[in-house]
Amino acid sequence: MLVLTNLGVVSFDFSIAWQFIYPIFFVIIGMRWLFDYFRKRGGSWVFGSFFLIFGSLLLLDRFEIIYFTFWSVFKLWPLLIVYFGFMLIRAKPNIVIEYNNKDSSGSKKTKSYSNSFFSVGDHEFNEPNWKVTPINLRTMAGDFYFDFSKAFIPEKEIPVTINCLAGDVNILMPSNVEFRVEATLNAGEIVVLDQTTDGINRSLSFETEGYEDAERKIDFQIHLRAGAIRIDHV
């Protein structure tokens, strides 16, 4: 169009057209980044959605539907809170548990557990020969069941941390494995072998007799707002 205007073929007011052109660039870039993100080809859903929204608002202004200029971009700051919230909800690093027994292809079996303070669900560690590794689970609500009598436990100190707003924690420990536990509970019951406490704002510290000298041992840190914590010997 610029070439044709310079040649006198058409009349083209670039200053007016530019007001429509650059918002379309933002829309196209935003759509491309979103497309690549959802097709797993890179891209960014944050920047893609931001440019799409920004460009669309500029176009609505050009068609006199709303008032929105380039420098009105600062009015979009609440989107930062929305993006931050989505990142918190979507942030779910996995706890990957390996099993010593192999499947038909000869490879070790694995299972993943979501680990996000905004997730809800049960976690069971009770399949034969699951390998005990450092575990740090943070969930909003759910039940936890650990059967260490079926596990492969390396000869070292292994930390297991559980943080949950509401749920039950049930742990079965073989009698030949030493362990220590620091448990806190705002409301509910804590039972560790023959020690029990219940009520409001309860805590319990326990350590088996041979914990300090043992090579193979587990250190539990369990913190619940409401629910029950129970550790028994098998």
Describe this structure in words.
This protein has 2 domains: 2-90, no CATH class; 94-233, no CATH class. The longest helix has 25 residues, at 14-38. The strands form 3 sheets. Strands 3, 5, 6, 8, 9, 10 and 11 form a 7-stranded mixed beta sheet that branches. Strands 1-2 form a two-stranded antiparallel ribbon. The protein is elongated and about 95 Å long. By secondary structure, it is of the alpha/beta class. The mean pLDDT is 84. Strand 9 and strand 10 form a beta hairpin. The chain has helices at 2-6, 14-38, 45-62, 78-90, and strands spanning 94-102, 108-114, 123-125, 130-131, 135-141, 144-147, 151-152, 157-173, 178-192, 195-207, 217-233. Helix 2 (14-38) packs antiparallel against helix 3 (45-62).
Secondary structure topology:
Elements: H1 2-6, H2 14-38, H3 45-62, H4 78-90, E1 94-102, E2 108-114, E3 123-125, E4 130-131, E5 135-141, E6 144-147, E7 151-152, E8 157-173, E9 178-192, E10 195-207, E11 217-233
Parallel strand pairs: 3-6, 4-7, 5-8, 6-8, 8-11, 9-11
Antiparallel strand pairs: 1-2, 9-10
